[in-house]
Amino acid sequence: MTSSSTFTSTIERADHPNRAAIRACDLVKTYGHGATAVRTLDGVSVDIRAAELIAIMGPSGSGKSTLMHVLAGLDDVDCGTVTLGHTEITGLGEKARTLLRRSRIGFVFQAFNLLPTLTAAENIALPLTLAGRRPDPAWLNTLVDTLGLGDRLDHRPSQPSGGPQQRVPAPRAPVTRPEVVFADEPTGNLDSRHGQALLAFLRDAAHNLGQTIVIVTHDPAAAAYADRALFLADGRLVDDLAHPTTADILTQMARLDTTTEGH
Ligand code: ADP
């Protein structure tokens, strides 16, 4: 295990040797002031290469969601830079960041983000509709088949339909084929069978379609689908595991729990 505030993770694939989908340098973000200030990100640097599924893990409060929001251009930093392809997100104004998110970044939403007045099909296509484009029908069909949504497409989320409606939101992001997809606990609302189907789908999208995907998860089994698991502790990137197994991740989580207990 590496333990240092300057730990830098470089995630590479042999077939995309030179492409960094996202590059973060020395990110610092503090909440609050004076004695109550919390350094939520404390010098995080990471290169995320194209075509990989990355899991961000770490104890509660370690900065996972904050890092994801900053990488996705949803949140500002005190200092440091985030670059998507050739675009420095951290230098953009709010309007430009909104446009960039719509056109180049995808999000996997959980159920509460669904718009109840739209059907499942309309929710899935929403990011494209906002961008004035139409979904690729073949791609949409693949998503629908993978998640077993065939009989749900005309339903609205508010209609009583039990478990399956929870599966609707997850495909919203990948349908646009953005450069990077971010997902905060993507399997949080799913039963294990559909959770595994979604993770397998995300991994295939990374490996076969060159889609870069970053998930935040507490679930070691979910993180075991990733090509690499990054571990945060106290706002610092403290380790990464390539091709982790569930057991590898559990061991690392236990180590971090022990390390951070005394803080
Ligand atoms: P994680 O996702 O790993 O649980 P977060 O990124 O949500 O961690 O939060 C990390 C730390 O930053 C926590 O101590 C949390 O209290 C603090 N924090 C996060 N967001 C805010 C906010 N909007 N205002 C104040 N403190 C925040």
Q: What's the total helix number?
A: 7
Helix/strand/pairing class, anyone?
alpha/beta
| Rg from alpha-carbon coordinates | 18 Å
What small molecules does the structure contain?
adenosine-5'-diphosphate
Q: Give the overall pLDDT as a whole number.
A: 77
- The gross shape turns out to be globular
Unreliable runs: 1-18, 160-174
Assembly status: single chain
Strand proportion, as a percent range, falls in 25-35%
The count of β-strands is 11
Strand order of the largest sheet: 7-8-9-4-10-11
**Amount of helix:** 25-40%
The profile of the biggest β sheet is: 6 strands, mixed
Spatial gap, N to C terminus: 19 Å
Element order, helices and strands?
EEEEHEEHEHHEHEHEEH
Structure in words:
The radius of gyration is 18 Å and the shape is globular. The chain contains seven helices and eleven strands. Residues 1-18 and 160-174 have low confidence and may be disordered. The strands form two sheets. The protein has a six-stranded mixed beta sheet, with helices on both faces. The protein has a five-stranded mixed beta sheet with strand order 1-3-2-5-6. By secondary structure, the protein is of the alpha/beta class. Helices cover 30% and strands 25% of the residues. β5 (79-84) and β6 (87-88) form a beta hairpin. The structure holds adenosine-5'-diphosphate. Adenosine-5'-diphosphate is lined by residues 31, 38, 40, 58, 60-66. Adenosine-5'-diphosphate binds next to β3 and α1.
